Amino acid sequence: MSFFQKWKAVAAMIFVELALAVVNALLKKVLSKGMNQLVISTYRFSIAAIILTLMACFLERNFISNLTGRVGCSLFFSALLGGTLTQYFFLIGLKYTSTTFSCAFINMVPINTFIMALVLRQENINMKCKSGRAKALGTLCCLGGALILTLYKGMPLINQPAPEVEVNHNTKSWIIGSLFLFAGSIVWSSWFLIQARIGKDYPYQYSSTAIMSFLGAIQSAILSLVIDRNTSAWFMKGTLEISTVIYAGIVGSGLCYVVMSWCVKQKGPVFTSAFSPFIQIFAALIDISILHEQIHLGSILGSILVIIGLYILLWGKSKEAENLKNSPTTDKNGQDTLPVTSSPSHT
């Protein structure tokens, strides 16, 4: 295997996290100016659908013939969970908090996926082996980090004047934003599980993402009209809002979703979601150097605990995969059919 083939998935995911950090920083700016969350989602999904449909027509010409009713239903729920609801919850949370803080909740996606699998009996913990104890410890660390992020803001760590939007973030709004971010991380975890199944039934990254974006645009528009019927919210004002929506549509809701879908298919959802801490690192650099936002102690402590728990869990998953690979009962357990238990080494 060549160096490029070995590391292209890693490089692709680092690019995705950097691009999403830029998207989040731009969205924070336009949200602070009063732009509607669902309007942003509708426009960005519409742009992504148009761009990806054109790409799918050239690169995946047989995608229509393989589109079944079951796949269409899965794509509808994929758009609802990974598109409409995730964007809505995340953008509300971003409005009430900061870019770096909101990105910390993305790190909880692998843990949420693991807990959901436990509830659905698709995953188990064997406390008699190291891998089982590691998974349990990692889960507890992440839950503790989530509680710190939600309930403890802490003192500011950078001696610089806080921007006007930060002054308005009182404790109540910070907790409200945290709850929306947590809800967003839950539905985002569900998207990874659904997408892993879609990748097997419908292996067309461009067309599946285009359809998901199209359905997400319709869902976001309907939800926006139900919640707020003010038509003036649909008119964008200024170059920043227009450029943010275009960039978020082409890159954030288009190319990034395509790359993530490809990585889920190639390496599994655990590998793909394991790069989520990078988005917080990139977002922190943008926050401090460009947006001049404040960093608080609670964000740092909670983020460190979440990241430590994340990689303890991933280590446990890796050891479990090694044990299953060496065990004669691997096929009997059927681990390869469960998205949440897919090993990063499986291709």
TrEMBL record:
Classification via Pfam families: EamA
The keyword S-adenosyl-L-methionine belongs to this UniProt entry's keyword annotation: no
Domain (EamA) ranges: 10-150, 176-314
Keyword list, A-Z: Membrane, Transmembrane, Transmembrane helix
Membrane topology of this protein: Multi-pass membrane protein
InterPro entries: EamA_dom, EmrE-like, WAT1-related
Location(s), subcellular: Membrane
Entry's transmembrane regions: 41-59, 71-90, 96-120, 132-154, 174-194, 206-226, 246-264, 271-291, 297-316
Cellular component terms (Gene Ontology): membrane
SUPFAM superfamilies, A to Z: Multidrug resistance efflux transporter EmrE
Domain of life: Eukaryota
Family recorded in the similarity comment: Belongs to the drug/metabolite transporter (DMT) superfamily. Plant drug/metabolite exporter (P-DME) (TC 2.A.7.4) family.
Name of protein: WAT1-related protein
Highest classification ranks of the organism: Eukaryota, Viridiplantae, Streptophyta, Embryophyta, Tracheophyta
